[in-house]
Design a protein that fits this description.
This protein is α+β, with helices and mostly antiparallel strands. It contains three helices and eight strands, in the order ββββαββββαα. It has helices at about 65-75, 130-140, 140-150, and strands spanning about 20-35, 35-45, 50, 55, 75-80, 85-95, 100-115, 125-130. Strands 1, 2, 3, 4, 5, 6, 7 and 8 form an eight-stranded mixed β-sheet that branches. Helix 2 runs antiparallel to helix 3 (about 140-150).
């Protein structure tokens, strides 16, 4: 059984201490256009930084399924979801009403097949396709830069 054929188990949510490191799941939304891999980035709500769609775990969903949900809600895209984690990056989520939260984010690839004109967060974010090189330069988190820079969609054909 290859790594791409392995099944992910749905998550069960347990109560966290408010200072614990939090897990999030993100989607690396990509397409291959004229032999060039392109990555879709979205802007963050508060600061307008370029990021990839990400969000909190969802009870009963796999990490990859949670990432796909975020891809639709934040970027308006759907496609072929791969149950393989490309890597993990960390950041601190700035909270306005409580302590900032340290987060670790697992990244799952989605080969985009459909881009919707309307989607839940269309009025809150911009979205844009970038070449891999430009996407790498646009994101701030060093570990995410490495994930994007070294992403090879040919690995997923497995």
């Amino acid at each position: 059984m290859s790594i791409l054929q392995m099944k992910q188990a749905p998550l069960r949510m347990d109560a966290n201490n408010k200072r614990d490191v939090r897990s999030q799941f993100a989607a690396l939304c990509y397409r291959v256009h004229k032999d060039e891999t392109q990555i879709m980035l979205v802007t963050s709500r508060e600061r307008g930084r370029w990021i990839i769609p990400k969000g909190w775990p969802v009870e009963g969903a796999t990490p990859a399924q949670a990432a796909a949900t975020e891809a639709y809600e934040e970027a308006g895209v759907e496609g072929k979801l791969f149950n393989v984690c490309l890597g993990i990056y960390s950041y601190t989520k700035v909270m306005s009403d409580t302590d900032d939260l340290p987060c670790v984010v697992s990244v799952f690839p989605i080969k985009v097949k459909k881009v919707h004109d309307t989607y839940p967060e269309a009025d809150e974010r911009k979205r844009k396709w970038f070449s891999q090189k430009k996407a790498t330069a646009r994101v701030r988190e060093p570990e995410l830069r490495k994930i994007i820079k070294h992403f090879d969609p040919n690995f997923l054909r497995g």
